[in-house]
Amino acid sequence: MRCTAVGGAGGSGCVCFFRDTFVARGPPNGGNGGGGGNVWFEVDENETSLNCVKQQLKARPGTNGQGKSMHGSSGKDLIVKVPKGTIVREALPNPLLAKSSNDIELPNGTGFLDTLEKDMLQDMRERGQDKNSWFVHYPRWEDRNDLTKVLVPQEFKAFKWELENPEPLRFDLTEHGQRALVARGGLGGFGNPHFISSTERQPHYALRGLAGQRRVLELELKTLADVGLVGMPNAGKSTFLGA
Questions:
Q1: Bridge-partner residues for 221, per DSSP?
Q2: Which of 45, 107, 131, 212 could, after both became Cys, cross-link 112 (CB 3.0–4.6 A)?
Q3: Euclidean distance between CA atoms 10 and 60, whole angstroms
Q4: Distance between alpha carbon 148 and the CA centroid of its chain, in Å?
């Protein structure tokens, strides 16, 4: 059977500032968004077929960050029970991953991440998007925010790369309680305190959360017989089983 597993989207960061009596322009205090939930397969020895698996599997999204440095809550993981002997493989693998997963390494270094951001921006321009779509803006500040020199956190860029370049999936689930991660949730966005710098003391923007992975999976159940029946042709094996 085929099913689609979708990780929960990450919540967006919050754009907020501290306000109090006699404090009209306080420092940024927007919280981060919560991470999206993951989709897991877990072996349950009480299950005997794949009828328990729905065709659409979606984990819960994370909630948005709030003011007063309150971070959003993470989305709840979706745990799907499957029987012993379930084989999980990706039906539509990423064509960029023709190599085996052992040959795939995430490059290290700031230079790679800077190049990655340029590639991400180029890809967004080709799809008619721009860097604004990454950010949440303070009310009436969308046209006033200059995002050309904003540095996206390296953690965000690396996580986005991993989501969009996953290793090919193939699991053989044979033990009770065995788990397999089939779709990762998105990373929550960062609140505006993350963008304070020597030249920007009051950032009026925050990062949106990342969407979760979407993967099309093929499930196959290996059936193991407890008893085998062996005999010569036309010896009556089918008649015996049908009796």
A1: 86
A2: 107
A3: 9
A4: 27
| 51 vs 127 pLDDT, higher one | 51
> Of 115, 120, 114, 27, whose CA–CA distance to 69 is shortest?
27
Please give the Cα distance from 88 to 158 (Å, whole number): 26
Closest by CA to 91, choosing from 174, 164, 212, 182, is: 182
- Whether 43 and 76 have beta carbons less than 8 Å apart is answered as no
Query: Which residues are bridge partners to 4 per DSSP?
Result: 56, 216
Mean pLDDT of the chain: 84
**What burial class does residue 7 get, using C-beta atoms within 10 Å of its C-beta: 0-12 exposed, 13-18 middle, 19+ buried?**
buried
Strands laid side by side in the 78-82 sheet: 78-82, 39-43, 179-183
**pLDDT tens by residue, 142-163:** 888 888 788 888 888 889 888 8
pLDDT in tens, 91-132: 865 443 333 333 334 444 445 455 555 555 555 544 444 566
Please choose, from the candidates 95, 86, 78, the residue with its C-alpha nearest in 3D space to the C-alpha of residue 1: 86
Which residues, in sequence order, are bridge partners of residue 12?
none
Residues written for the chain: 243
Of 199, 108, 195, 184, the closest CA to residue 153 belongs to 195
Q: What span, in angstroms and rounded, lies between the C-alpha atoms of 137 and 118?
A: 22
Name 221's Cβ contacts closer than 8 Å, sequence gap at least 6: 49, 50, 83, 85, 86, 87
